[in-house]
Structure formats: structure tokens, C-alpha cells
Prior knowledge:
This protein is of the alpha+beta class. The chain has helices spanning 22-42, 66-70, 129-133, 156-191, 221-225; strands at residues 7-18, 46-53, 56-62, 75-81, 92-106, 116-121, 137-142, 147-151, 201-204, 209-212, 218-219. It folds into 2 domains: 7-107 and 200-232, Alpha-Beta Plaits (2-Layer Sandwich); 113-176, Double Stranded RNA Binding Domain (2-Layer Sandwich), CATH 3.30.160. The two termini are 32 Å apart.
Amino acid sequence: MRIKQHYMKNDITLEIRASEGGQDSKLLVHDMRDIYIKAAKNNNFNWKVLEERDGFASIWLSGQDVKQFFQHETGSHRWQRVPPTENRGRVHTSTITVAVIENQSYKEIEIPQSELKIETTRGTGKGGQRKNVTDNCVIMIHIPTGIKVRRDGRHQAKNKKDAYNELVKRVNNFYRTGYDKEIAEDRREQIGNGERSDKKRTYRVRDNQVIDHETGKTITIKDLFKGRIDLLA
């Protein structure tokens, strides 16, 4: 059972990070932010800048097929240009990374009987003769995760109810925590190591050319700043 199946898909967050290239890499983060906002406007997506700091920007986006539109942007983007801060006209090579993260709200689950294993046994400890000679103790196990709950009160029906409620709580906490880990792993896979050799796309400003190394398509820098990243998909 995959953890993500318990989440409701809503929208995405686009994360842009500086990688190699020092100050120019940080400046490129803001350039790409503006390009993606333009693309969002072109396609009537809802958008909002969530966070912006030195070398990082994140944009919330929603709309029909928004993930499909932007998912091709993930990876390392290599820029070859004369930075605005360069006084001698030298071309620098800088990289940024882009990740597309699904924003998903957690849907609390109820555990079906098919995923439960229930055992009863005699109780232990204080509680009187009835507790220790009848099978009132309930051990409830969630089969997919192996999470186990034991309730040892005097009444079996109450023990089953209490054990189930506690099991639901623990299983939901487990899925929430696990999903956070999946997000982190997904992000790492998308951005790679961010090195200049680890490129998904190359932007050659002097040649007025953007080359996508996965699709083999090219567009002009002018089209890029119009937000026409769809031409590269």
C-alpha cells in the first residue's frame, strides 16, 4: 500500500534553487520565477509567490492540468550568459534546480475490516477474576503496516472499540510521517546534484537559444521570457 493514496491532489508548489555559479545563480532564480509566473498567466493558472529569499523562490500554482504543464521543468537548468554583475563581458556558466511538489491535503482514513487482524486472550494484572479467566483482552493489528494495539480492560466490546480508535490514530500518524519522507526523496530525485554537467536544459543567451536535452526541442530566449516553456515539452 503506497502512502500517497491517502492524499487528495489539489495543486503544486514550484521550487527554484540556486546551485552553481555564485551570485549569478541566485539572480537566475528570480529570472526563472518571472518566467514561470508569465507561463502561469498565459495558461490561466492561479499563482502566488509563497517564499522568496536569497537563492530560493517557491510559487504556488493551481488549475486544470497544472502539474502536467510544469512537470517537465524538473531538474538542473544550465545558463550560459554574461551576468548583470559582470563588468568585463565574460560569459559565465551557472545552474539552478527546479522541483515540482504536489500540494496534497491528508484524508483521514478509517481502517476496513479486511486490513485488521484481531486476537483475544485472557487479561493480566489487577481487575478481578472475570478479567483473568475470560478472553476479554483485545490485540488489534493493522496488517499493511504491522502496527499493533492491545487493550486489557474488563469488557471485550469496549476493548475492541478503544483498540480500533487508537489504531486508526497511530496508522494515520504513520502515513503522515511517511508521506513527508516521500516528498523529501522525490525532491532529491528531481533536482539531482545541481552540477553544470547534470543538465536538463541549457540556456545560451548570446546564441538566443534554449535547448531541452530530454525532448531535443529548442526555442529562443525571447520566447522563454514570454513564458512559452510549453514549446519545449
